[in-house]
Amino acid sequence: MSNMTLVFDHLFSMYSACIDHRGTPEHPARTCSLEHQEGAICWGAAYSVGGGPERERLAMEYLERRECEYDAKTLVNFYKEGDFSDEPSLTGVIVFTSTPDKESNKYYLGPAPVEDMASQIATAFGPCGNNRDYLFLLEKAMFDIGHEDDYVIELANEVRNVLGIVGKGIPRDKKLTGPTHIPLKSHIPTIQLHPLPEAIAMDS
Predict the structure, then answer these.
(1) Cβ distance 31 to 108 under 8 Å?
(2) Which of these, 40, 67, 94, 160, could form a disulfide with 11 (CB 3.0-4.6 Å)?
(3) Residue from 29, 25, 20, 28 nearest 133 by CA
(4) Is the pTM above the cut of 0.70?
(5) What does the pLDDT profile of the chain (204 residues) look like in tens digits?
(6) Out of 35, 64, 67, 198, which one is annotated catalytic?
(7) Is 26 an active-site residue?
């Protein structure tokens, strides 16, 4: 089960390396993590695992293998969309994150000029597909829920510049406003997605 949620004091970054899903050791991909920043806000989905302690244990074992390039599990508070209470709807939610220390975390790439990150993302490829589709799918997911992220849009558009497909993304002047529960239609070309048998079985 999932709920659309809001996380305070965190923002998206593409500073984590991926060498086994969307990249390789020779040409690592860049994948998304949350960075702590006072006053920032980011949106996403919070998932709960039902079925009792054994199911929870199996889910965590799977996630720890899949997210092995993130070196920390951060506990954050989640707030439901439309709930303006000061009290979080969920506390202690586990988020796999990458600590910003290149000495202790070998998978932390850190910030770089947007042009350099875009070139890396445009060309990285691994067993689960290419890095650019990872970014474009993230961009589309945020657009479809009505909570576009400027950082993600800027980086995705720069990747399109590298690939020579300018104009295929979300126009900066077309950002959505108004109630977010209204079904939204993306300007991005439709990508055929198939439902997964389990919410936890998603590739990075």
Answers:
(1) no
(2) 40
(3) 29
(4) yes
(5) 556 677 888 899 999 999 999 999 999 999 999 888 898 888 888 888 888 999 999 999 999 988 888 988 989 888 887 766 778 888 888 999 988 888 888 999 999 999 999 999 999 999 999 999 999 999 999 998 888 999 999 999 999 999 997 555 555 444 433 222 222 233 333 333 333 333 333 444
(6) 67
(7) no
